[in-house]
Amino acid sequence: MMVTFVSQCEKNALKKTRRVLDAFADRIGDNTWQTVITKDGLLTVKKMLRQTASKSTAVSCHWIRSRARSQFLWVVGNRHKFNSLGVVPVNTTEKEVPMDFTQDKPKNFVIYENTH
């Protein structure tokens, strides 16, 4: 199975998790590793990450099922660094973003940006 590991570690945990993940997978980014691994190997990686885990540790694992599909497997460490799907949240905003539409009121059943 092809898996991707995403690390959001801080401080000393960064060095420890990089050492473990570099031993099992190829680094494809600053905080991302990818490899083909068996289920037993995946359990070994998870076990080693748990042994070296601290409060600053946060590593997620995703199973790449096809080019368009991946399945979230587990998180070791701080789950709050990831959302419910195990994805790192980036570029979020809480302020109101102006929308361009020419009518006074938005149309029903039409999805606009930044709407609920």
Question: What proportion of the residues is helical, as a percent range?
Answer: 10-25%
Could you say which structural class the secondary elements and strand pairing correspond to?
alpha+beta
**Do you know the CATH topology of the domain at 2-81?**
Alpha-Beta Plaits
Question: Please, what is the oligomeric state?
Answer: single chain
* N-to-C SSE string, H for helix and E for strand: EHEEHEE
Radius of gyration: 19 Å
Mean pLDDT: 86
- Biggest sheet: strands side by side, in what order? 2-3-1-4-5
Beginning-to-end CA distance, first to last residue: 37 Å
Helix tally equals 2
Q: What would you call the shape?
A: elongated
- The proportion of strand residues reads 15-25%
Keywords, separated by commas or semicolons:
5-stranded antiparallel beta sheet, single chain, 24% strand, alpha+beta, 116 residues
Annotate the secondary structure layout:
Elements: E1 2-7, H1 12-24, E2 26-27, E3 32-36, H2 39-51, E4 58-64, E5 70-77
Helix pairs in contact: 1-2
Explain how this protein is built.
By secondary structure, the protein is of the alpha+beta class. The protein has a domain at 2-81: Alpha-Beta Plaits, CATH 3.30.70.240. The chain has 2 helices and 5 strands, in the order βαββαββ. The chain has helices spanning 12-24, 39-51, and strands spanning 2-7, 26-27, 32-36, 58-64, 70-77. It has a 5-stranded antiparallel beta sheet, covered by helices on one side. Strand 2 (26-27) and strand 3 (32-36) form a beta hairpin. Helix 1 (12-24) packs antiparallel against helix 2. The model has no long low-confidence stretch (mean pLDDT 86).
